[in-house]
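Hi team,

Filling in the usual template for the complex we talked about on Friday. All components are listed, including any nucleic acid strands or ligand strings, so the model treats them as one assembly.

SUBMITTER: L.P.
PURPOSE: interface mapping
COMPONENTS: two
RESIDUES: 694
SEQUENCES:
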Amino acid sequence: MKALDNVSLTVKKGEIHGLIGETGCGKSVTSLTTLGLLDNNAIIRGGNILYKGVDLLELKEKTLRKEVRGNEISMIFQNPSTSLNPVYTAGEQIRESIVLYQSNDKEEAQRLVLDELDRVKLPDPEDVYEKYPHELSGGMMQRIMIAMMLACNSNLLIADEPTTALDVSIQAQFLKVLEELKEKENLSILYITHDMAVISEICDVVTVMYGGQIAETANVHDIFNNPRHPYTKGLIHSVPGVKLNIEEFETIPGTVPRLINPPSGCRFHPRCEYAQKICKEKKPSLEHIDKDHFVACYFWEEVK
Amino acid sequence: MNIVETQNLKKFFQSKKGTVKAVNGVSLNVIKGETLGIVGESGCGKTTLGRTILKLIKPTSGNIFFDEKHLFDLKLNPRKAKDILDNDGIDPKLRKSFEKNKYGLSADASVSKKGPNSWRIDDDRSTYLVKGEENSMKVYSVKDITDIDDKEMRKHRKKMNIVFQDPVSALNPQMTVYDHLNRPLVIHNMVSSEDEKLRKMVDILNTMGLKAEHLIRYPHELSGGQKQRVCIARALCLEPDFLVLDEPTSALDVSVQSKILKLLDRAKDKFDVSYMFISHNINLVRAISDRLGVMYLGKLVEIGETSDVFQNPKHPYTKGLFKSVPQPDPDKRVKAPLTGEVPSPVNPPKGCAFSPRCPHSKAVCERENPDLIEAYGRKIACHIFGKENF
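RESULT (copied from the run log):
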């Protein structure tokens, strides 16, 4: 199964980069590959993952663990309750990363934990410190995860569907925390989601993935106002909120392809209204069409 | 006319920590042919409400009325009718009016007041609702399904159905699509011959965008969207009058979601069915529902025409909730989301449950629970914004 095929994307310093796609398009595999967290049966056939100029693929597991994961790049997952240890309090778990990365002094570590809890806008940090994960709500747990990441002083955060399990009001609060961290601390974030509305809410740059390949990359305004890939366009028009009336909803015919035996040429062509003979025969390459706008489609000029 | 009406419906659960008031006095109605959207955050009781209405779980108290039919208008001066109905016993004039319209009341019939302009008359055979509207009083017959036993309930089951969130767990992995559709059709005697049954199955599958060949498929041979379409087909094959859709698309990808919504919309006209659409996805409910109810901690805080409520939300929770919803438009970003979190339903705040998070909270809000009352052509439960002359 070719989970990823020729995926290139760049996350700049202090930027929130959104990675969007439907189930099975390879967005989570992209993030796991970055951190070297893939299962043993995964084979990386080629390519580079450059972080501050260093190719992460060439680093040894030990170096990755000691010098990259945590210190430089952190990751948070969809379900915070499975990422936290149920038998330690929230404070103890954050303190662990502080002791590892910042300070050995017990009292200072505790003080730093409280600072971190305050930074992610958790009310009453002393109280939260003593709480076990089951005593916290989903939104609070997700903020604990962020605090843990901040405690390692990471520069890049990979967030894989971090708000899918959260309610809208909690999601909005959580996204505000991320935005503030970006503004104040120049944190870079790779934000993975299937939710177009969340993408429009916090991202600066958006990459759309389809069937293990990149369909389009552009800044968030261009993606929403001037989409050039038929898939991006279909995705946006099937999101409730763009069209307010059910009759105006557009749908993308067919379903997401299986990557074991993907369609030839452009993987989107069986579902595409613009598809022609060439789309079936030859895979389109990512074309540079405007300042920061890239699209992999032969007929991008016709997509309106 | 209403297809379903609930009056002060409550469902409490006992837990180790105390009583969870999942649904705490909800009065609402679903009008024939409409889609009523119910939104709220997790734990607000929207799913419990849907299940209690169908009596999949037994209500703690309150009433559920089903299948309302207009019988006649009460030919009395409305003010006089009110006086008559406000008395405890059945007034001779009221009895006469029922007889005149060929609906004689038995000797032990009783009247009880159910709201500012609605009364309930129980007699040994039927339940009647009397409702005052502007200058007239209308008498309806309804079926009170609150207390009937399971055997009796089974007769009504055919007329009401539910589609659950997760199609994977709602289908039996050992049964084909044919089996899934066969069971309800046979149990409820919907068809007389195998031929008719097959025709009916294929017709309903076609309506949901599936083909006859899918009949021999097992659930694992279908995609997520197809599975959910089978679930909807199964719910619709008995030609129900009322369907509860409990987050029917939240387990699906967006491109599939919009297809299912379109199919649901089409099926609604074809089968003349009314929907109660429960979801936490506010943008989605906005697109599909005619009226919208907003729930917070087991209670309705605002209910009215969808477009109206969206354009001009009145309850502070509704306002905050709508403001927290990200819009698929990078130029409209959320500025001031709701603060705080939903309190525990075991120990809800005193007075208005929203008061601890409410920016407009006053002393009265922490003391008394506001009633859901008419204002601005909708119903609002708020001490501050729930009155028009504010």
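MY TAKE: Residues 161 and 235 of chain B are 6 Å apart (CA to CA). Chain B has a mean pLDDT of 90.

Thanks, L.
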